[in-house]
């Protein structure tokens, strides 16, 4: 990345002329990936990171490279690592689905206020982790400490900025350089996940519908079967580059890999229903955050039990 645009929060990846992914650095204020697109007459930001210091760098980078002000921001879903940087773009149109808007409005005010009131607690926890560094030099621990430092730095001035425009199912933005289609097939990872598709570039910004070379995160709201259905629909589209919510840039192969992962986890959990822990296949050993596999299995187990009662 050009030193002029270096950031401790992300690595800039040029996907096409005027299309960039910003890949989160571990232990930074970004947490999740984001990106930006030049339509020729306006600039679209896709997701805004976990902190305003990371999103400030994102806006600076986008406007310097494209040489045009950001006009439109997309929130792919309601999770904090994709929307807490919205305040950097208060002067822009911020668009999401109705479900994403509702979840942000209902959940984040209490969550943010609770963290603001507990900055001392967060600081104490971070210091306890720093004390552990004397016994361990693990990179994971260092990244965790750095992420907490970024969180502490963000909280005093953090404010929740909600989307000010909503869309239903799909909307297309047209420009002299390219068009961009924003759409949702509903919820898979979250209760509603949006994708930004650039047909002429064969690029899709997929948010947390896609994880590349890292274990995906399941939540109580996740629907594994619908997640697979959504990935199948996207995989049939003309895509060469898929920008994930977490991990490195991907392709259709990575979409298929995640579909297989979810299908495997469902069948494996169903088969080993009575076991405390499901053994993780060795093919996933090299993926980052392997500890998430067991947590995913537990959530899948609960999901299977709930669906069996319906």
UniProtKB/TrEMBL annotation:
It comes from the Bacteria. Residues 31-246 form the Metallo-beta-lactamase domain. Signal peptide: none annotated. InterPro entries: Metallo-B-lactamas (IPR001279), NDM-1-like (IPR050855), RibonucZ/Hydroxyglut_hydro (IPR036866). This is MBL fold metallo-hydrolase.
């Amino acid at each position: 990345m050009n030193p002029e645009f270096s950031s401790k929060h992300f690595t800039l990846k040029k996907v096409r002329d005027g299309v960039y992914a910003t890949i989160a650095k571990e232990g930074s204020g970004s947490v999740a990936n984001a990106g930006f697109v030049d339509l020729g007459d306006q600039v679209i930001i896709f997701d805004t990171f976990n902190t305003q210091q990371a999103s400030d760098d994102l806006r600076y980078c986008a406007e310097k490279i494209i040489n045009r002000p950001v006009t439109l921001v997309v929130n792919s879903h309601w999770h904090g690592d994709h929307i807490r940087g919205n305040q950097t773009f208060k002067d822009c149109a911020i668009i999401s689905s109705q479900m994403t808007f509702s979840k942000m409005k209902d959940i984040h005010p209490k969550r943010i206020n609770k963290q603001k009131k507990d900055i001392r607690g967060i600081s104490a926890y971070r210091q306890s982790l720093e004390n552990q560094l004397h016994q361990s030099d693990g990179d994971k621990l260092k990244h965790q400490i750095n992420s907490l430092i970024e969180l502490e730095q963000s909280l005093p001035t953090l404010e929740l900025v909600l989307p000010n425009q909503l869309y239903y199912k799909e909307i297309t933005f047209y420009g002299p350089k390219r068009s961009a289609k924003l759409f949702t097939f509903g919820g898979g990872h979250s209760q509603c996940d949006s994708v930004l598709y650039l047909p002429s570039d064969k690029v899709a910004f997929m948010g947390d519908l896609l994880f590349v070379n890292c274990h995906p995160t399941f939540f109580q709201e996740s629907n594994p079967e619908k997640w697979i259905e959504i990935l199948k629909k996207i995989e049939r589209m003309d895509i060469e580059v898929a920008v994930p919510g977490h991990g490195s840039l991907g392709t259709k192969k990575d979409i298929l890999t995640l579909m297989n992962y979810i299908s495997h986890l469902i069948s494996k959990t169903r088969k080993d229903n009575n076991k405390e822990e499901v053994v993780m296949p060795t093919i996933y050993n090299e993926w980052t955050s392997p500890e998430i596999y067991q947590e995913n299995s537990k959530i899948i187990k609960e999901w299977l039990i709930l669906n069996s009662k319906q």
